[in-house]
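Quick one - inputs below.
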Amino acid sequence: MNDSNSEIETIAAALTALQQHINQLVIGQDAVVRQVMVAMLAGGHVLIEGVPGLGKTLLVQSMASGIGAAFKRIQFTPDLMPGDVTGHVMFDMAQSKFVLKQGPIFTNLLLADEINRAPAKTQAALLEVMQEYQVTLDGKSMPIEQPFMVLATQNPIEHEGTYPLPEAELDRFIIKVNIGYPEVADELHLATQNAARAIGSPVSTRRNLIDIPQAQRVCANIDVDQRVAEYAVSLVRQTRETTLLRHGGGPRASIALLKCAKANAMLAGKHFVTPDDVKSMAIPVLRHRVILAPEVEIDGMNADQVLSGLIDKVEAPRS
Amino acid sequence: MNLDKLQIRATLRSGWQALDLGYLMASRWWLPLMLSAALPGLLLFIPLLVVFFTQPLWAVFIVWWLKPLWERLPLYFASRKIFAEPISLRQVFAEAPALYLRQLLPWLLWRRLSVYRAFDMPVTILEGLSGQQRRQRLQSLHGKYVDTAVSNQLIGFLFEIILCSGLFMVLLFFLPEPLESALYNSAGELALTGQWLYSLCAFIAIFALLPFHAMAGFALYLNRRIELEAWDIEITFRNLARRKQKLASNTTSLLLPLLALSLMVTSSFIPSPAYAVVEHDQASAQQLIEQVLDGEDFGREKTLSKWRFKNPVEEENDKIPQWLIDFIEWLESHFDFFGESTDTSDTPINLADWIKILLIVAFIALLGYLLYRYRVPLTRAAADKTDADLPQVMFGLDVTPESIPRDVPAAVMRLWQNQQPREALGLLYRAALSRLLERHKLAFRASHTEAECATLVKAHGNLGLSDFFNGLTDTWQRLAYGHEVPEADVVDDLCRRWRREMDDAEV
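Output:
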């Protein structure tokens, strides 16, 4: 137990350093950075929703530089084909043989920008890799190198000509992060800092602050008390029992919630999960897995508001 | 009651025409009628809002339940106006105590949900009848207008809901979005501001429509009396008599001497009455009547055939248990549930009566269920507000002051020494919550986690207390969720700090 605790403390310290590194570059988005790190530790993918220009690309770049990982970006457009994501096999005239050309999916951190602008088949190609952690090309399965994480973005406005992700595919994202505008002081700092930076200069020097696969393994082994697990499941079940939601979270949501709660506990340097870890991650985990009832939608409420009310109805664990 | 001064045309109307007449009366006298009802209502509503500040819907529910009271003054006012008697609101309010007390309890208890209320109310308020007399009066009044009376009650109720909801919606439409969202909480339920607004809308709807509903019932009552007591004929006769009297008074001076003279001349020629002949006429008339009654129009025989059970009487008795018949008869004799159908001793209970019984049983069952279902909020509302908000159980721990030992640290140390660390820290944490609830009135909720409780304690502003509670929460969480038993000196330190922060601290 003590060895495990000290390991967790070491990883937590490294995670704090990583968080500080990202926060130096992505200013005024501390909560978003923390949630993305939770998703990374839980081994999941993140759906980020926010208007353009809030530093989504910078967030992924800075995270990649912090963990010494490869980073690629795909701008999803209506004419993007599955092969443009996964890669394809082409005939090399010089060598007179078919050669495999890997797509941008073969990376550690992938920013899928405006994922809802690509047609369903292209989205499906990406989502398959997210689930299976392997790409099949020309009948051959190729595993994706770990750590692998997709950060897909969506624009909450301009829905014209988009292909909204189906619920089953949304479920593949472990959390959905809403990214908003920074505070005045943060925006001022951001503006002055970036105005002084030369165009094309690298975001940051590449550092290797933490071994992510090892952190993920340790995170998966964090203790969860039976009552805390029951609390997580109760929260998810509550979304299925209310009339405010047409569709609630499924068992995959319960799994995701516990994984994120573990990661949240680890970020705090704890070797056990508390109900607060579960509660704090409930909305990011559930907000994209639920569908509002029509009357609630007409009333102008959003998923966060409904979920917040539902969470308040669930009693905290009986210790 | 002077029929000569009746302000409406006494003529036979259908039930719906009577309702129309009632609505016309309400439109004409709406302001005094509404004020006579709403002012006393407002006098009660305002204190109720103060008492139920956090649950204003209760205030409006009580006002709604007391509607049989509010309908009395408008009825009294209209009953005077209809006969052109001069009456002011001041005079109406002077009569209010006597009117309100008249059969108060029956109207607020078992007659409150009567579907004939507006129709029956004049019998109580204007005729002052009660008990057997009232029942007989209602029996003769109800007749064919029962359905219209029920419709009036239903229409009134529905329009109240429509107007109340409509007002609320209109306000919603005109409110700016940030204010509008303040009316609802995150779960889509009415927040306190919304409840206040809805209560005000409901109050306005109740008293705006009350004159219409009460006057429609009153008009129906008047219509029935016109029909039963033949007011129209009486008024016609009175008019005829008046006209004749007028003619007579003009010719009396001329005719009187002539009449006296003619009487003197003719009296010697008029024969005395022949009584035997009169008796003979009565006997023949009786015979004639009997002949008519024996005739085809009154004494026809007709043969009908239909299917029926072989032993209908026995089956009827099998279907309806005697105890139920006794119970219904007892209800009728004591509570007048069934209006005019009081005489059931020689007639079997029909389908309509069965439906009434079923509805009453269903209503009682529903009432019982609702009382059971909402027993906790009802009990809390009845109790003192501060006590009502205190949770009894948090995190599965009993946090009532009675469940906490007098000397908490001593009890904790005893458990600790008995190798029961979980029970020891559990007691310490439970006692801390209980003390914070009891003394510092912190608004803990069942959905609050330990960290949220700690945040609330911190927001309370007592730094020492907050520091102690944070330490306790951390130790407790490590034990409860991390299965990490603390060192003895940690527990000892917590017990010492407990005495300083909880036992000795001034509130």
